[in-house]
Each structure stands twice: as structure tokens, then as C-alpha cells.
Amino acid sequence: MKVNQSEFIISAVRPEQYPDDGLPEIALAGRSNVGKSSLINRLINRKNLARTSSTPGKTQQLNYYKINQDLYFVDFPGYGYAKVSKEQRFAWGKMMEKYLLGRKELKLVMQMVDMRHEPSKDDKMMNEWLRHHGLPLVLVATKMDKIPKTRRAKHIKVIKQALDLRPGDLFVPFSSEEGLGKEELWDIITRHARIDKYAPEVLDAESNPEEDENTEIHG
Q: Which domain covers residue 107, as residue numbers?
């Protein structure tokens, strides 16, 4: 997908702050410093639309980026950052849960894990929660360039086993430095966002399920 226009729109914490133009939304979830901002910048071919930071936990709202007047990337707060208080993690979790279960514009969740390491407890909990609620999901293994080519297959196997990925589950190894996986990821995004001029087929299986009041996210 060729990106001609991209812009930051808003940092939102409440539903009334979300854009109301009905464009499809693609959410990005992952641990702090997993590379969400770098992935956004690589996908849109810009260096700093999404600001990267060496300080984990900097993103504290849902950051909306509009792409080509066609869709939004919605960058979530990073989970698993120990220096954030329990109260703040709980508040983030409730904000994310409310968005994920109630936002009809949501078409895909990109859960990002660091390819260098086995998925953490938080990664596994988030993955299980997303699957439990039947949300459309692609797992993105970032920082592939940090792994020697001869060892990448082993790291991919570890991630797939840890998260119990099955045949047909969407999985994309990705490198923000080298752009590896970019085209494959854009193909998945445009199909789920149903952007006809990029991807004519229609996916009928994606719909937000009703909220299960007994299951919560705790960031």
C-alpha cells in the first residue's frame, strides 16, 4: 500500500474523544519498547510521525494516526511496564478493554512481541484474552533484524509454541530497520479494513463479540 498522507489526530482516553468519521481502525498492542512506534513509522515511510522513546510507559492514551484518509492506526499503552503503578495499569486495562469490546470501527488487532525473547506472561495473557473474545488478530514478531538469519526459524518456533499458534493463524515476522514483513502486513491490514481499492475481497468472519463481564484486562 502506498501511503500518500499520514497525520497524528488525537490522544484519547474516553470514547467521546474517538474520531466519529467511521473509518476502519487497526489497533496496536504490545509490551513497552516492543517497537510499536517504529513499526508505524516504517509502514507509512516516515521517520517520526509516531514518536519513539527510550523511556518505557510513555504512551498513556490511545494515540490515533490517520492514514490516507482510509483508516486509523490506534497505538495502545505498552503493557507489562513494572514502574507504572497498579492503579495506572488497571486504568489502562479498563480503557483498552472498553475500546476492544465496544468499538465497532475496530477491524484488526496487531499484537506485537519481541522476536528476540520468548513471549512474556503479559504477552500470553493478552493473546489469550484476544482469542477468548474472538477479536481479529495478527501476531507481529518485531526486531527480526536483531536475530541472525540462521537462528530466526528457531525463534519463530519458540514464539508459535509459547502462544499456541495454529495453522491459519496470522503471523508476520517484522523488521522496522529493514522493512522485512512490511508488504505482508499491509496486505493483511487492507483486507481486514476492507479497503476495496487495495484489496477487493471481503472478510465476513470479523465482528466484535459481546462483552464478557467476567474477563478483564489488567495492564
A: 6-193
